[in-house]
Amino acid sequence: RSENMVALPHGRGQVQYVELGLNRDGTFVGMRCRMIGDAGAYGGWGGILLLGQTKVMAEGVYHIPKIAFDVAIVATNTTPMGAYRGAGRPEAAAFIERIVDMAADELGIDPVEIRRINIYREGDLQPTQTRLPAGVGALPVLERCVTEAQSRLRYGRPDPQPKTHLRRGVGISSGIKNVGYSFGFPEQATATVELIGTREIERAIVRVGAAECGQGAHTALRQIAAATLGIAPDAITMITDDSSEAPNAGSASASRLTLMAGRAVHDAALAARAKFPGRNAKATVKYLPPRTTISDPDTGAGIPNYCYGYVSQAVELEVDTRTGQVQLLKIISVHDVGRAINTQQVEGQIEGCLAQAVGYTLTENLLSREGRILTPHFSTYLLPTTLDMPTEIYPVLLELADPNGPFGARGVAEMPLVPFAAAVASAIHAATGAWVTQLPMTPERVLAAIASAQLVADERPRDPVVPVD
Fold first, then answer.
1. Rounded-to-integer distance, Cα 211 and Cα 250, Å
2. Which residues contact 14 (CB under 8 A, 6 or more apart)?
3. Contact 210, 249 (CB under 8 A)
4. Among 94, 95, 111, which Cα is nearest to 361's?
5. pTM for the whole structure
6. DSSP characters for 22-83?
7. Which residues pair with 317 in a beta bridge?
8. What does the pLDDT look like over 87-117, one tens digit per residue?
9. Nearest-angstrom CA–CA distance, 381 and 153
10. More confident residue, 86 or 93
11. Which one, of 386, 349, 329, 37, lies nearest residue 177 by Cα?
């Protein structure tokens, strides 16, 4: 494992400078971003992640009429940058959600209300000058998150112990993540369905080259086939890992398998059923989603993605102002999943992703000096444990059908990580008044932010004392 830590790709290091322009009523008018990205050795993934995904997701879930974006990719003498869960989108959410909270604080507007004013709605333009794909669930997801936070968390209520060293706060954030490949990368999924029976369908064989990585993809595909054909799931035989039989459905990445492979299985099942009964009740279907394109290098115009998933989260936590230690208490994670093919699996994906998000946000700090990794062991690179997880996690599913997915399903696996760090930072601010802008939010950084906030508070001019006779 230590060799893995030293030699293989790691997550993204970025320095971000962001300015947000608003009207006094809280309406966003423009944003300027400047970013320096550490691509590590070789630099290959750096350009894709930063120039592509972080740039396209810079506006988050908000309509911002004008955006200027400048990126510098730096090759450095350390491990190369690599993609994992979210691949550039959590970095975008980290800065847009932080600056939205800061703007709300500056203008004296409720942070949820400023989101309501600017959040994406059906038909809104993206910065790439194209309409959002149909099925924009950003606002319903936010509203449900607020409702859940009001009933389950201490949202909108003061800290019961504001004068102790333990301060409690609640933060809310929103996020967006594409489903499937982007920027014109060839996207397809192919499946073959063969039906067996005389007058009624007795069994079916589904051939689809979709990788099972523990996320339950094969179970979901089996369920999609069974529901389409009107037979029991155990009457489905799945052939998925023999490349001589199972056609290619693409990679298990980009939160795409349920939508893409599921749609191919669904359409192939319909085509086979149309041939039944008969000896050749067999059909192969290649599903091609709506096209995407590379963005124009001068204007930024293009069609980056064909589908998005939307998420809003609320986090309740406690901060020890003596040590900077953050203890997560409760998490609400609300998602528009289009249609939950298997509710238990979807909730499991959300909970598992949140565990990874806790590490990304609070504990996992990869350190290097002069090209050498200083944290090669689990004793120094701190993965979250069960003690770091809150005892209460509430995954909430909205089913606002996506026009592309089978039965309206869309992907969800990466979405919980996208806005989580921002929600934690918002809750820390609610608890302490400190703005934490560096990840991970280690106790040292939280403590420094609290000290800085106190210094600013001490230096604010006070009303003059007027003597009274």
1. 9
2. 35, 36, 37, 38, 50, 54, 91
3. yes
4. 94
5. 0.93
6. E-TTS-EEEEEEEEEEEEETT-HHHIIIIIIIIHHTTTTTB--S-EEEEEEEEE-SSPPB--
7. 169, 328
8. 888 999 999 999 999 999 999 999 999 999 9
9. 31
10. 93
11. 349
Chain centroid to CA 45: how far?
Answer: 19
Per residue in 235-271, pLDDT (tens digit) is 999 999 999 999 999 999 999 999 999 999 999 999 9
Element (H, E) at 372: strand 372-373
Token pair belonging to 85: 């869960």
Q: Which residue has the tokens 């990679």?
A: 251
* DSSP 8-state symbol, 389: S
Rounded-to-10 torsion of CA 309, 314, 320, 326: -20
- At residue 428, what is the residue type? I
**Active-site residue numbers?**
414
Residue 413 or 189, more confident: 189
> How far is 264 from 41, CA to CA, in rounded Å?
38
The residue behind tokens 């203008």 is: 107
